[in-house]
Amino acid sequence: MKPIRVLLIEDHFLARMALHSVLSAHSQIQIVGEACDGEAGLAMYRSLLPDVVVLDLRLPLISGFDLIVKIKEEFRSAHIVVLSNYSGSEDIYRAVRRGAMAYLTKDASGEELINAIESVHRGLRYFPNMALDRLAERTPALELTPRETEVLSCITRGYSNREIAEELGIAEKTVRIHVSSLLDKMGARDRTQATIYALQRGLIHLE
């Protein structure tokens, strides 16, 4: 059997080296390229046409989410494995919706990552119980507008309505409308509960 040609896209050097070490030790996997940001990753994909790409979601220049979209737009049959620290249901849902065929968190074992790569290479999806449980928890009806997402991000940083209005350049009355809509959509009693909900679900990430 020909080895599975894998492209790694991971911005942290030590994490990338660890992945290389684990995967290259497997006789049926060949690392054909490594990239440290989304733009380089996209360029490498175009030139190398790997069998499987393993990518992080938190990448410089082009996020992992956007990179999945760009790769799938050009290469519909691309086999993409996500390996991320993000474990919120929204993160998993967004990645899968964009075209990821497997989703693992970075505490996954090397054996599980290899199983995911082999499965995806065969055209199969690979989701551990954690990912399946998170997807089952997700409320499909929850769809935030771009503005609501911006407001929610400000809320998680502790901004008042006035501070949100100044940050986004909108009227304070408009902010109150967005906040009310957010709380209603999320089923949250107050801003604190909305913040906890947003962080647990991966709607917002604090840098």
UniProtKB/TrEMBL annotation:
Keyword terms, alphabetized: DNA-binding, Phosphoprotein
Modified positions (4-aspartylphosphate) in chain numbering: D56
A molecular function GO annotation: DNA binding
Pfam family, one: GerE
HTH luxR-type domain location: 137-202
Statement: the UniProt record of this protein carries the keyword Cell membrane: no
GO biological process: phosphorelay signal transduction system; regulation of DNA-templated transcription
Domain Response regulatory: 5-121
Name by which UniProt lists this protein: DNA-binding response regulator
Source organism: Paracidobacterium acidisoli
